[in-house]
Amino acid sequence: MQKTSNALDALNRNRAYLILALVLIFALFTPRFYTMFNVRSILSGSALYTFLGVSFTLCLIAGHMDLSVGYMATTGAMVVLGMRTNSGLPWWLAILIAVGVGAIAGTINGLLVTKAKIHSFIATLGMQFVLRGSMYMYCNGAEISVRGEFTLTDAINRAPLKFLPLSNLFICTLAVVIIYLVVLRNTRFGRNVHIMGGNRETAWLAGVKSDKLTTLVFTLSGITCALGGALFAISQGTATPTLGEKGIPPLMVALTATILGGTSMAGGKGNVLKTFASILAIMAMLSVLTTRYGKFELQILFMGLALAVAVIYETLRNYARQKRVGIRPNLADEYARETGKTLHIEK
Amino acid sequence: MNGDTSAAPATRTAPLALQMCRVSKRFPGTLAVDCVDFEVLPGEVHALVGENGAGKSTLMKMLAGLFGDYEGDILIQGDKQHLHTPTMAKQHGIGMVYQELSLARSISIYENLLVGRLPKKNALFIDKKKALIEAKALLEQVGLGKIDPRLDVAEISQCEAQLVEIAKVLGSEPSVIVMDEPTSALSSEEVKRLYDIIEQLKAKGIAIIFISHHLQEVFAVADRVTVMRDGKQVGTYNIKDIDTEFIVEKMVGKSIKDFYCTRHPVVTDDVMLEVNDLTRWGFFHHINFKLYRGEVLAICGLAGSGRTEIAMSIVGAAPQNGGVIKIKGEEKKINSVSDAIAEGVAYLTEDRKVVGLALTQDVRTNVLAPIIDNLASGPFYHPARHEAIVEQKIEALSIHPNDPERLVGSLSGGNQQKVLLAKWLATDADIMILDEPTRGVDVGAKQVIHDTILQYAEEGHSVILLSSDLPEVVGLASRVLILREGHLIGELGIDDISENAILLAMNGKGEHVAC
Amino acid sequence: MLTPPQSEAGRFTRTGKLTSILGTAGIYVIIILLLLVGLGIRQLDYLSLANLRSILQAVSLLGMCCAGLAFVVFSGNMNDMSLPMTMALSGMMAIQLIPYGIVVSVLGGIVAGTLVGVINGIMIGKFRAHPIIWTLAFNLVLSGLVRAAWGGSQIYPDTIAGQNETAQATAETFNLFARTYYFDGALPLMVVVMFIMFVLAQVIFSRTTFGNKLRIVGSQYEVARMSGINTERMVMTAFVLCSLCASVAGIFYASLTKIGAYSNGEGYDFRALTAVLLGGMTLAGGKGTMVGVFGGVLVLGMLTNIMTLIGVPTFNQYVVQGVVFLFIVWLNNYLEEKRGHA
Asked: Which chain C residues have a beta carbon less than 8 Å from that of A265?
């Protein structure tokens, strides 16, 4: 009994990998899925979402929600191409400026949460609109494209190893995931973020400066999203201010992947690798749906159901946990004697 | 007052592990700790006892650096230190084992153990290998060597978590460890394990301050004991020289008694409430009692004995796994608080700020909250039309200021508590369960509340009083039930009720009728 | 923390009458100020019947949403992020059902929209799902459902009606909803409906058991539960009312644009929340009045109106709205905190 529940727990903890594996097996029965071109386009297509998913996971681990990730990416995308095409700056400077703008917007998010004490959901919801409007203003509602030279665009889409479907864009994405994985797992900063998200009191007693750390988390989220947006824009060669809302909203992909990946909605627990795996699963599934049914609508429905099922599952688990019996260890034996069952001790 | 400091430390040669000289802590309106001298020797287990509100916790919080501003000096290993933040206290060798677990449940054990001081490999990275070795060593010290430190705290039992909490404190290599009710989450087997750990710590020369309501635990582990009462130090004694009765006497004192009215309402034979075999697995098992008309029945038990849970199950706010509740002889199924109100049972909750009152609403809204349905005509209800009820309660309880539109949060603690009582009196219930009805209120409000309770009982109603304020119990109750770890273990009749008797009974001693 | 904010102890004023500067009285002072600004820009034209009517008509859809959303905010559940799809769903259902007559069409639209509230209510009221994450998730589900059901395309009342003459007449009636005026074109039906909804909401708020219980649920959930209030049912009802109002707004939206599309309600979640907060409600719940919320709706409408009058492009208006929103929330927090320390 105990063993099965442990096994189920382990399965649930690693559900992101399980889902990815299932989707990949399912994809075997889909024609033209495992082709170099398709795999490469799935992997490249997951790049933007991965940047956002990683940011969203980071914030959720710290106990906050960043709803502005989608428009942060839009900002990065617009600014980088605007700086390059309209202002004629060199690429490296354009990217730097785009990331800088993301950092500033993220820091403002952080300050709104820590200094103005606005609930993160509200602060980032407002920021979402400010960014959206600013980007429309920046480009007068039109799209910005790379003019003439596509050297960087080509470079970023090129796969350095001919026999592997890995574009440079995807390799960059992979690098970001690995950096976040290592930072969150193996640095003091990362661990403090976990502790702060898990229990404010513990963090405070241990001398963690929560306000500074929270602001930093939002800044990082801004930087990552803007970088993701910038790389995406370069790879596409064009950027529109509707990036954050068109099709499947990137925010929803990030949120779905984060929740599917098992990040706790209450904070303190999460893993960017699982978020990444979830994004790959989602992208693969979307590709399968497209080849099979060719309908964009089904993709949205699938995404929505995946997210809703994950939220319902977590909610019902919490609900059931609250109904479980027992806090007093000394009564456990008595319970066992009278009912023949074991007592779950819950705090 | 302080004349009893008879027990001089056994040896004066080694420097004291801790010395608190004439420390005081003032809160608005009260002096929570009043000029206390407190000394702890290295390698000593020093128990700190006193009733609720005696100032033990405040004294220890000063030591933990949770208050920046205290009066007096704190000397650690002979050196004067200012302890203004928890980090400073930790640096100076004070280790706190908190009563409420301060562990982050979603984080691994080893990180919780080493929180704030994870070993670094270089400027950026944590040395996980070293961290695991350190964590393992700490866990072994508390007998948890078999547990994998990489597990999350959520995955281990509560008792193991309590031991991890102790291990966490050991990690900062303290010279003094404060244990605040460390046994509250432990079963008796595990308590023995804790004693062993304490012995080992003692052998290493670490001083331990042990706070517990369970006096037998104090006698089992402590070398010396300091008794506190009303923020003052009553005395420090060698444990060998004294017994439970002596400590109880010192804890209780004599002076306060005069406050309490000693009139008792006439108890009739009418059974108002009968509880048979009430059980909620893991919280309390097989509770039986009867409540008579006109009676104030107190249920006393140490912290965490299950008083509040019993009340919650009776009024339907928490589930129950078995048992029968009869109201005025009729068996009733109570599944929610509104059922209870309809059956004439009111439950005045313990924590007025969290579950008692809506602080951001006005007095009227709060007082009328439980009876909205009774006052409504169909789906319509207009609070301002029922002003008379509110005004009558305000006057009866002399709530100040007498403005029904005043926000409850802006009232003083005493007046808030009166509003809470008014709210439940307004339901015209026949049976009232009062959970800590006077915690944190001033003397004046206490008097009003006590008078109201007695008057309510005299009018032919019944009261169940759950209180850890023993003088209050003695002053009001006509019968006392003793609850211990989820079981009713005894009963004191009106002639046997005294603070000493209750304290002894709660600690499993003294004479009382067994249930 | 991600749990809905509980109203904290220590934040209060001396009396309930002055709960917020941005409350009932304050918001109408702002309205008068905005009127003066409008007068300054357009002279007496601004107060012309035509302009006032256009302001009211422009905010009527938002107003309908706010009348419902106010219950959710009041109950301490922050926001209903599924508002946009509720509007879209009800509008599309109504158009789809046009061949079956106008009564079936309208009722069908309202029932479909209200069903969203029922599901939200069960998940959040009964099972205590996180209100934001759940409604965001459900919004996406609905978005997928609506797109899949209608093949991702828009629908139009007259094409749905087809060649059938009675159906065509019904489509005409449907399109007329948003184009009906009383008193020689002075008073649009949409505005009347909005007014009626606000009056009903105000009555529900202050004169019914539900409104008064919801006040306690919103200000302190556990207190309400321990006072014998069926908190689950209160929260559920709040979400149902919210969806009910949103679906009425959705039908008018469809009638106004003569289009049923999944994008019909876009942006209404944020704008409605802004108006509700402007109107003096707080995210912590349990505070504010319907009169204030109505004022908030008017202020938002006038702000848009004036910005349009002085020629601020739509995109720049987003920025202004975002900044105003953040400023309002900050000001509310700041004033509360200041009062708490006073």
From this structure: 2, 130, 133
